[in-house]
Specification:
about 400 residues; Alpha-Beta Plaits; 12 helices; about 20% strand
Length: about 400
């Protein structure tokens, strides 16, 4: 059975053996952006230095200011003495020089210019980059980035400036969700400023099929970091790697993770197509099984992105934990697909933890699909919604009362 699960590759630690040697800093996560399901995770909540991934949050603040009208793309900003003295990577801006907001955006996305980051931070922060960093942190908390703290706008070394792979995945999804028009800018391969062209540090753009953003980062203490947005067929994923040993090794590693994940998804898609052909014949049987089978002690958990909480995301408080069971199947993949369909049909299930339990019935193996970690009321409402959409379900109370996180 363990071998079978490895084939599908959705157990959270399936790529641990492939971690870079710099494992003390290494973390990674791959998230299905549509459903919020975590398809792979290794140390996703380990705090590390985000380096220039910080500029993703800086750009979030800029896009928000553009959306509200506080800034305009053509507004010219004056470079301060402090901004001009920021270490490279930079545009080598001079004190008193003028630069447009649109030019700052291009410089942050491609060149990852630290001087440009300080210019825009001082503009939004009322002349203070430190104040801007406080605003960044507060906004990050509102986005559910509970383990992230910003101290500057660029990602330059500061031992108190930390984040996690999970939080950066949340930020990437928030950028697209909240600013779809501006998110497209992350796909720009180059940027011209004062007669000079700057190439994007994200070398996967145009070279790894489906990649359309978003950012890389590096400082010595962090290693080589990257956040990738990728779309293939109907699956849009966000992938994050912290702590690569080099840019090339980091890129090879994240490509390996994504190839494995997409192979798994492609296999699941083929199974789903086959199941549609017999869905009408099996719907009554699925209904009977959903009501018949009790929870099993053997479970495979595919974690969700944790909700906002003051405690570490990998831990949840004990209490009455409820779930919605949506069927029992003779294979793992169809069970997982059923849970995914349920999450799409009932919006209140978004963010729930997908659990596939294995057990036996009449001497044959079965896999029960459930969405867990719900309050009783939320589970009941979700099941009602599913039934209205012709999907069978059953509301269950978890035996342990403690949800499992992705470890």
């Amino acid at each position: 059975m363990r071998h079978r699960f490895a084939i599908f590759g959705l157990v959270l630690s399936f790529c641990v053996a492939a971690q870079p040697a710099s494992a003390v800093r290494y973390a990674s996560i791959i998230v299905d952006e549509r459903s919020g399901t975590v398809l792979h995770a290794a140390n996703p909540d380990r705090r590390s230095f985000p380096a220039s991934l910080t500029k993703m949050m800086t750009l979030y603040m800029v896009f928000e200011a553009l959306k509200t009208g506080r800034l305009s793309p053509d507004k010219k900003l004056t470079v301060s003495k402090r901004a001009s003295r920021r270490p490279k990577s930079k545009l080598w801006l001079k004190k008193g020089q003028k630069i447009k907001v649109s030019e700052v955006i291009g410089a942050l996305i491609t060149k990852s210019a630290n001087d440009a980051a300080t210019v825009i931070a001082e503009e939004i922060g009322g002349g203070s980059e430190a104040r801007f960093a406080q605003l960044m942190t507060a906004r990050a908390r509102q986005l559910g980035m509970t383990r992230t703290t910003f101290r500057n706008a660029s990602g330059l070394p500061d031992r108190h400036q930390v984040s996690t792979a999970r939080d950066m995945a949340k930020l990437a999804m928030a950028l697209r969700r909240d600013f779809p028009k501006y998110f497209k800018l992350f796909s720009m391969k180059s940027f011209k400023y004062r007669g000079r062209e700057y190439r994007n540090h994200n070398r996967l753009l145009g070279k790894f099929a489906g990649t359309d953003g978003i950012k890389t980062g590096y400082v010595r203490a962090s290693g080589y970091n990257i956040v990738i947005s990728i779309q293939r067929e109907r699956h849009r994923l966000i992938a994050v790697v912290f702590g690569g040993k080099s840019a090339s090794k980091r890129d090879r590693h994240i490509k390996m993770l994504l190839r494995r994940t997409y192979r798994t998804l492609a296999e699941n898609d083929r199974i789903e197509v086959a199941e549609r052909q017999v869905a009408a014949k099996t719907s009554k049987k699925s209904k009977n099984k959903a009501a018949k089978y009790a929870p099993s002690s053997k479970r495979i958990t595919i974690a969700r992105i944790a909700p906002e909480t003051s405690s570490p995301p990998e831990e949840e408080l004990a209490g009455d934990i409820w779930s919605v069971q949506v069927g029992a199947f003779d294979r793992f993949a169809p069970a997982h697909l059923a849970a995914g369909r349920a999450a799409r049909l009932a919006p209140m299930l978004r963010g729930a933890r997908v659990v596939v339990e294995s057990g036996t019935s009449s001497k044959r193996r079965i896999y029960r699909a459930r969405l867990a970690g719900l309050s009783e009321g939320r589970a009941i409402r979700a099941c009602r919604t599913l039934k209205k959409k012709k999907m069978t379900c059953l509301v269950l109370r978890e035996e342990s009362g403690v949800a499992q996180g992705d470890r």
